[in-house]
Sequence to fold (258 residues):
Amino acid sequence: MSATTFPATDWFSPERPGARVLPAHVARSSHGGWWADDPALPRALLVHCGPERLLRGDPDRLDPDVLARFGRGQFHAPDRFLPLLGRTFTHLTPWVRVLHVHAERPRPVSRHTRAWVRALKASDETELDRLARRSAPVGSSPDGPHWTASTWGGHRALAVSGFAWGAFIGPYLASLACGYLVGRNHLDIAVATDPAFRRLDLALACVHAATAAAHAQGLTATWSAPVSNHASRALAEAAGFRPVRREVLYWAGPALAR
Fold:
């Protein structure tokens, strides 16, 4: 289905921090798309972008064979979809994440650190490639874009999106903050740092830039972190974000053989 024109539905209005930003991000980024049982009058709707999957409507209108085509990913879905997910995938793992909204003045960083931060541009694609390689788990090699670029369709798309800021030490991209999901009213921030450059306040400086840019465009900056990721939640607090609610996601895959 078209990535830019969704069927007429108010299922995602008003836009709230979290999964409801996904449809607007698909339209903005032209990456991902949607499936509906009936485009004219949908009763079941799936929106997908990178690893993100959003399900709404009546699960009885969605066949496991159709759902399996979208592959493994993290599903934002009401509990009524759990039986369908269980019939479709070999594994279904719930995890809880905390949604934050920027609400307070962040902890300051030095002007020297801030001076290393700038907006990314097309020529930074190779540095994003390098960050992906250096961030890969020991003994493995990245088989795709860095996770921060997965909702944009790759490193070049992220670099030219206008929603990515990096801290550069010499020629090297040491840290990155970007809009992982950018909707009509919200910008959900993703952060990554080269392991060699951690604990230098570079991530915080990048988040400062991302948050300021979001506010300048009339967007509310948000932050999503697994409840168990204490480092991410501590960085969010230092950057002026405060928790507003929790939500449960389901990591599913691979599809059952049929």
Remarks:
- The chain has a mean pLDDT of 93.
- Residues 117 and 220 are 21 Å apart (CA to CA).
- The chain is about 25% helix and 30% strand.
